[in-house]
Amino acid sequence: MNVYLDEGERYAREGKWAEAINALSWAHDVDPARVETYLLLVETYERAAEAEKEPDLLQQAFNVCRDLRDRRLPMKAEQQEIFYGAFVRVRDKIIAARRAGWTPPPPKEQVHTLFEKK
């Protein structure tokens, strides 16, 4: 049983996106091998991005997708199907946002360069 996962699901149902993402991130930290948590986190980021009209949240969803892909955790056929669908859907939404003029945030390793004087 993962209390954070249950809490994250509840917050997501209520449309409390920041709280849902926070709880699901904690759930991920508690059990990083649980595929269900990754899938819920991707779905929550995606729903939050749509509700808030915020493409940066799509980038976070994509980052979670890549993390799950790179970990190569065992998945049931249904989870694989959900994952693949989410991966493609989020990727396509990011491409559409970029075509509409959105610029993704820099990688965290480069954030400090934004404040350097030139």
Short key terms for the protein model shown above:
70% helix, single chain, 118 residues, Serine Threonine Protein Phosphatase 5, Tetratricopeptide repeat, 5 helices, mainly alpha
Structure overview:
With 118 residues, the protein is mostly helical. 70% of the residues lie in helices and 0% in strands. The protein has a single domain (3-115), classed as Alpha Horseshoe (Serine Threonine Protein Phosphatase 5, Tetratricopeptide repeat). It has five helices and no strands. Helix 3 (35-52) runs antiparallel to helix 4 and helix 4 runs antiparallel to helix 5. It is globular. The model has no long low-confidence stretch (mean pLDDT 92).
Strand content is: under 5%
The total beta strand count reads 0
N-to-C span = 52 Å
**What is the quaternary state of this protein?**
single chain
Name given to the CATH architecture = Alpha Horseshoe
CATH C-level class is Mainly Alpha
* CA gyration radius, whole angstroms: 15 Å
User: So, the CATH homologous superfamily?
Assistant: Tetratricopeptide repeat domain
The unreliable regions are none
Shape: globular
Run of helices and strands:
HHHHH
Structural class: mainly alpha
In this structure, how is the largest beta sheet organized? none
